[in-house]
Amino acid sequence: MATAIKKPLTAAQFKKKVLQHLNFTSSQTDYQQDPTAVLRAVCLTVNEVVYEKLTETNQYHKEHKSRSINYLSLEYLMGRMLSNNLHNLDLFDVAQKAVANLGFEIEDIFEEGHDLALGNGGLGRLAACFLDSLATMDFNAVGYGIHYEHGLFKQQFHQGRQIETPDEWREYGNPWEVCRPEAVQNIPLFGHVETIANTDGSVKKVWHSGQTIKGVPWDVPIVGYNSKTVNVLRLWESRASSHFDWEQFNSGDYQDAHSAQNHAETISKVLYPNDETDAGKELRFIQQYFFCACSVKDIIKRYSQQHGNDWSQFADKVAIQLNDTHPTIAILELMRTLIDEYDFAWLDAFAMCRKVFAYTNHTLLPEALEKWSVDLFNKVLPRHLELLFSINEYFLNEEVSKMWPGNDQMRRRLSLIEEGETQMVRMAHLCVVTSFKVNGVAQIHSDLVKSDLFPEFDQLYPEKLTNVTNGVTPRRWLKACNPELSKLLDSKVKVDWAKDLSSLSSVAKFADDEKFQQKFMAIKHNNKIKLAEEILASTGVEVSPDAIFDVQIKRLHEYKRQHLSFMHILALYRRLLADPDYDMHPRVYIFGAKAAPGYYLAKEIIYAINKVADKVNNDDRIKGKLKVVFMPNYRVTLAEKIIPAADVSEQISTAGKEASGTGNMKLALNGAVTIGTLDGANVEIAEEVGDDNIFIFGNTVDDIKALEANGYNPYDYYNNDEEIKACLDWLHTDYFTPGKPGELSAIAHSLLDGGDPYRLLADFADYAKANIALDKAYKDKARWARMAIINTAKMGKFTSDRSIQDYVDNIWKLTPMSSQG
Ligand code: F58
């Protein structure tokens, strides 16, 4: 594929630079034995190109005083960076040759890299895809986040149970980041607020903080694909504002000399601290404030460098996107800064915030909507709490009461404060009130945000609630992870599809072309062979690449219903035991999922899948027709290996619960056929690929509402469906856990006496039926190949470039670098 931008280095030059770095940066001459040193030297070589482009990007935006988007997210799941950066700089083949010349396979060098796993799941990965698109599309953007010392835990299985160990992603440094001491910030915490009367009768508030924390920025360059831009992801690390007490240390008091430092450094120590205790809650809250305050100060500093003290253009030059409610305190921090430090009148400061902030909602689950106690707010951020109350007063009196005069119930419902035994701050309400736009992440989700989550807000602010359907970057999720398929697509599509994904639609005309089908499916088969090797290495289970590879990869959560697939596996196993000739194409179920460390049932589901896997995989009676593997430590890097090899994509959440999903897009893009409910972005995927190329089953959002209105009773399904009853009863026996009956009972309890909160049993029969249809379709090779090809061809809508363009057009109103002259 022709690229517009000239290759920055030849293979010979690249190799020379790698050798120079090995010699002069690492003093490693014996590199043949040391792929880690080679990786480092390759990264440093790439960085030479990257930093030159970063300087040019910064220069350009300084000169043009470009409007910037500032993406605030507590999570970024970047994965590994090298392969992606090489592709984006069009240096992949150059590096491959250079490294081969040094005696290494480039893939082996990649394997030495660590995942940058500073996130939990979809929300964090979305942020990473968005940064890739923003740089690719030449927009002026900064990502802000936390420089966690430990990212998402590593997962191992011990006798089938999840064990968590700390992630040490930068124990020995990270070549992709650079510290920026010139941009350090000091962040106050705790203390009290003094009210000082001015001579004109007004009052001035002064916050006397009790502690100051230093925020140290680390910049990770974000390289655009075939673009002019390198942006940065700025991650804040917390440190003590003054160094340890020298005198105390010298007097022999080593412990206490370090204590302030330890306390400060705890803030950026771990991603998502366990917030079941009060101390954990306080830490998470301080994390949020710490990174918001650092980022707001940094945004103001960058603005002031260009505009001095002239605030008139601030809202024209700065947009701040809140990735969920986690960075909501940034609103209060900007408000506080404008009023307390720049003497803004309250109304002007509030109006400014309303022009700058926009908020993305990622969930309707009530338990995931953040609330912080007023007491905690008051302890950590007393001044911010005052401002919050003032916003609430204005909002309730000037907006709610004017729209619904005399309606106290409405005031109570919409208030930023939830009254009760303990007063709680509703962070989502603060976001909706103070943002100029609020978006959901798929059409059905955004519709539900309007109709079910915030209907009154939608009435109050009719233009505010909107939709931006998520997307994924085709650079990482096709070009880099599936090179063979990429080459095949290159041969058929004459434009650079990685930058214009809708161009893949032209491949649909080859969907019935026998030769193309063969090529497409041969690539899938090769990818399956590679994955089978990986499965053998990580689980010890041998699987056949001729079987259907049925994939469910995502966080483990009841609403995502890994246990629906698990129940169906039990049903298949039963059918096979009853009739070893039961007509089904061999199937391998491949799971990848981490459960939150404190989420009991999620961990029980992992355990149950592993136990059933042990039994099924070793049962000769079923002639290898069914295999189940749970691949440990699911992460971006593993996703990159699984996705190109998937035949079937399981997207089986309870309708109305999965906001969008993005794995669904990645899998379909790589030619997997979805079996799914009408939930999240599945709905839009179905629209794009057409009903013939997807297996939709189960209750819709409205069906679920109707079921609930009639009083949902899981026993209705248990008593009336022999297969459901048998599978659930099976879990109480010791069939899968010899000598330990009842070890898998937790799932059955939750589905029966627990009320089956995610309506799994109501969807079981239809899911089983859809699986029969799927099995039949797979057996028809030409039909399946057609379906797989159409899935790849019709994923144009789901590039994150389109999502970003939607944000730009409807929310941020940015102009790309190239159009600014
Ligand atoms: C996910 N949310 C949604 N949250 O569940 C998924 O449907 C959507 O596609 C994705 O966002 C991107 O919009 C999500 O990943 C989290 O990880 C939370 C982080 C903070 C703790 C609770 C989970």
From TrEMBL:
GO molecular function: 1,4-alpha-oligoglucan phosphorylase activity
Reported cofactor(s): pyridoxal 5'-phosphate
Alphabetically ordered keywords of this record: Carbohydrate metabolism, Glycosyltransferase, Pyridoxal phosphate, Transferase
Membrane-spanning residues: none
EC number(s) stated in the UniProt entry for this protein: 2.4.1.1
Pfam families, A to Z: Phosphorylase
Known catalytic reactions: [(1->4)-alpha-D-glucosyl](n) + phosphate = [(1->4)-alpha-D-glucosyl](n-1) + alpha-D-glucose 1-phosphate
UniProt xrefs under SUPFAM superfamilies: UDP-Glycosyltransferase/glycogen phosphorylase (SSF53756)
UniProt xrefs under InterPro entries: Glycg_phsphrylas, Glyco_trans_35, Pyridoxal_P_attach_site
The family this protein is said to belong to: Belongs to the glycogen phosphorylase family.
NCBIfam families named among the record's database cross-references: P_ylase
Free-text function comment from the UniProt entry: Allosteric enzyme that catalyzes the rate-limiting step in glycogen catabolism, the phosphorolytic cleavage of glycogen to produce glucose-1-phosphate, and plays a central role in maintaining cellular and organismal glucose homeostasis.
Protein name: Alpha-1,4 glucan phosphorylase
Source organism of this protein record: Thalassotalea psychrophila
